[in-house]
Amino acid sequence: MDVIWYTAMSMDGRIAAPGDDLAFLETIGVGSAPPEDEFNEFLAGIDAVLIGGSTLRWLVAHGHGWPHGDLPTWLLSRDAQLRIAVGEVERPIHQREGDVRAVLEEMEAAGHERVWLCGGGDVAGQLLAIDRIDEVIATIAPTALGAGPALFDAPDLPPDLRFTLEEVRRYAEHAARLVWRRARDGGE
Ligand SMILES: NC(=O)c1ccc[n+]([C@@H]2O[C@H](COP(=O)([O-])OP(=O)(O)OC[C@H]3O[C@@H](n4cnc5c(N)ncnc54)[C@H](OP(=O)(O)O)[C@@H]3O)[C@@H](O)[C@H]2O)c1
Question: If you measure from the C-alpha of residue 115 to the centroid of ligand 1, how many angstroms do you get, rounded to a whole number?
């Protein structure tokens, strides 16, 4: 089962400014190819989602609810109110807490092969710490934030994990899109 961390970050690797402020995403600008098309193409290729409590809380607080309620979703959170706040969704959200390994095992046992890590940096850090990030698709916005959750927001990450650069290109008006694939087995 592959886990893909598809996200946007600042030049200094932050996925949000302090206070869960995502205004920096506006610096990406619009381009000739609407970013939504690429995102929809990506979504068509995944079969389950993993999301952290803070990312889902941001979506709910901004009136989006859970916009991908048609996809099997696992939520990592101890917040008993969060699922209630989401309201009705097409498929039940599996809320779990504790060891992220067990959550991945459950997703794998359910037959999922390509999982979108929707956010955020805290969950991404837990996954990288156990070497369960297979791909990173990151849009880099042309601004620095100085603080806020990092792309992998965890201390003591294994220093020897390497990724192979698969793609690098201009994205929309002012951003760059990078795709890295985890290089395993000593190859690549
Ligand atoms: N730039 C982008 O494209 C992008 C993408 C995704 C997210 N974001 C932003 O990033 C911010 C959120 O990222 P984040 O790194 O702060 O947080 P996060 O990873 O979304 O969520 C972290 C929270 O989830 C819960 N959690 C995580 N692991 C858990 C575990 N193993 N067991 C139980 N609960 C667990 C905990 O809180 P609770 O128990 O209280 O829920 C934890 O504080 C938001 O502002 C969001 O909008 C930006």
Answer: 16
